[in-house]
Structures are given as C-alpha cells and as structure tokens.
Amino acid sequence: MGRRRRHDQLRGRDQAWCTGPARLRRGGRVSPANRGLIGLGVGLAAAGVATAAGVAAGRVNRDRVARYAALAPEGVYAVVPGKELVVVADDGTPLHVEVDEPTGGADPGKPTIVFSHGYTLSLRSWVLQRKALVEAGYRVVLWDQRSHGESERAPADTATIDQLGRDLHSVIDEVAPEGPLVLVGHSMGGMTMMSLAEQFPELVRDRVVAAAFVATSAGGQNMVTLGFGQFLGRLLGRLGPRFLARLGTRQQLVDTARRVGRDIEDLIVDHYSFASPVSRNTIRYTADMIMGTPLAVMSEFLPSINVHDKRAALKQFNGVETLVLNGSGDLLTPPDHSEAIVQIVPGAEHVVVEEAGHIIMLEHPDVVNEQLLSLVERAERAAAEGIAVSRKPRVRRTVTDLAKRREVAKARKSRRRG
C-alpha cells in the first residue's frame, strides 16, 4: 500500500511538471521542484536569447573595430594631469580635482575654465576638451562629482543637485578663488551649475563671464524618458531608483555579468550615448565610465535629477555669455529640454549638432571644442569692448560635423574595398 501511495505521489508530481503554468493560472500551488524546473526553462530561454544577442553584438563590434578605428585611434584619450588634488566638500566628502595649465603658465587676464561632468560619468569625459583649451592658452579645472570617478563615496542622502552646487563652490573656492571664470557643464553637470547660481548668485554675477550648458535641462519636466516618451518615462522615473537599488546589492554579480556580456553592453551604450558612428575605443571608454559607477550611486541620484527644476536660478546668468549645446539625436536630454535655458537667459545662443547623441563631447569633439573656444572668445571680446550681452538677440543654429561625415564615408568605402 505504501509503495502504491509513493507511486501516486510521483505520478502527481509528473503531472505538475507538465501542467505547472496552467495550474498557476488557476491559482493552484506548484512545488519547489516544479518551480525550479519552470525557472530552469525560463532561464534556458533567457540564456538562449542572451547568447544569440551576444553573437550578433559580437559581429557588430568586430565590424566596428575594423571600420571606424580611425575615428578614435589608440592613445587619443590618454592624458597626464598637470596637477591632482583633493578638495574637501562642506560636509567632509573628499572630491578629486585635476588642474591643467598651458606651457609657460596661464595668463592671469584669461578666464579659468571649470568643467563639471554628467550623471554616471567622470572628468574623463572632457579629455578632448581639456586638451584643446589648454593648447589655446587657458587654465582648466576638472573635478569628479561626489560618488563618481575618483571622488569618495558620499552618504546616500547627499546625492542631490543642491549638494552638487555646494561642491562646485568648494572646488572653485579652493583652486580658482580669483579671476574670471567660464563654467561648462554636461547633463547633471549643467544642473550643478544652476544649483551653484541659485545658492551663490554673487559668484556668478561677479566672476562668471561665460557658461556652456551641454546636453542638459533646466527641469520642470520628467527627466527620465530614455526616448520612450513621457508616459513610459514617468514609469521609469518611479521604478528606476528601486530597480537600481536592488541590483546595487548584487554589484559583484552585475560586474561578473558585465565581463561576460561586454558586446551587448557596448550596443546599449552606443544606442543611448551616440547618434552617429563612433569607434569601439570610444564606446568602451564611455561604457567604462558609466558602468564603473556603482548601481547604488545611480539609484541615489535619480530622484533628485527627476524632480530637478532650476528655472528660477537661470536668471542669475543674465549678462553672462551663454551657450546651450545639444545633439539632435540625444535620447536622454533632447534639444527641447534645453529650451527653457534659451528663453530665460537673454542673448543665449542655442546650437544643435546634427547626428549627435548625449555624449556629444566624445562623439563630435572638434565641433564641441570649436563652440567652446568661440564662446570664450565672445565673452572676452564683450568684456573688452563693454558689449551688453543681455541685449544680444537669441540665436539658434544647426551645425553639421562635415569633417566627421567625410571620415565616416571614407571608412565605409575603405571597408567595402577590403
């Protein structure tokens, strides 16, 4: 009798394996063994998809290595900082700062250029701009925002745009306490500049001669859309921090998955960072910055970014030579996100770069360098000639990187011949 009961139990378990999903739909219970097999099936399916995606991504990346390597040759992102130091923020958080000066020293009459990087990036994102501006004779200051790059991990409750504004003030106070300033901020770095203006308006009024807001937003709208529109964007804004926080508790597992799935990671970074062909070197350089940021840090900053609204603070830039720079194909902060800056700051110049994504300074470095140098020169000329910047008409221009188009066409033609 016992053997028969055992046989019936096994038979029932076999039936559960076959009807597990149906039983779940009817509200029935599935044993741990059944759930394990169902999970195994899902896992195998996911692994198959991931493997197929990885193979496809590998093919794309191998083609990219062969085709677009000339767009960013080996060593192009190498740089030796003139000076590295630590600036302690007002709450005691150590911030990593680098300072470059032109050969022979900086002209005291020229402004110091202060760069603030974006969310999940680091000061390394400005590598090509720092080189160009130092070569043009300017002193350059770059810093890693708290919990990013080489700056120290800060308490979670300090991951706010307001705190970043105070951090920028600490950096300026320590390494550029005197003389004219040019502020340049990308994405979250532009928000940091607005926060600085809100909390330290006298600094902007007295010392800032030019400001560049690159791929950023004054706020007042849902920030996290990822190109999916406002409806899905709001959902991402609510769920994103919790999802990242949970993943952050498994950072080691995520890091392992990164090493296995580098090709897929490259495709994702490419899609959301760029809108034109770039080299594999550029994608890996960008991915290492983004994915080098702990997931917990990503989670901590998202809420503050998503409710960011510094439109009132922009009035402090009245009289400051202002550049607003966007990529036409930016999925994270498209050009319309920057319209408020142009409307609020008199005389602001809005430049939209065709075929450019969010990481525009690595995708179209020559165009960005040219625009920044032109901005600084306009500011210097306005100061020398007493030009009232606020009376200048607002200008909006669309720029195409023709030099890069030619390089891409040349690379494609060469690849076909090969």
Automatic annotation (TrEMBL):
This protein's UniProt keywords = Hydrolase, Membrane, Transmembrane, Transmembrane helix
Q: Where exactly are the transmembrane stretches of this chain? A: 36-57
This chain belongs to the protein called Alpha/beta fold hydrolase
Presence of the UniProt keyword Glycoprotein in the record: no
Residue span, AB hydrolase-1 domain: 111-365
Indicate whether Amino-acid biosynthesis appears among the record's keywords. no
GO MF annotation, one: hydrolase activity
State the InterPro entries in the record.
AB_hydrolase_1 (IPR000073), AB_hydrolase_fold (IPR029058), Carboxylesterase_BioH (IPR050228), Epox_hydrolase-like (IPR000639)
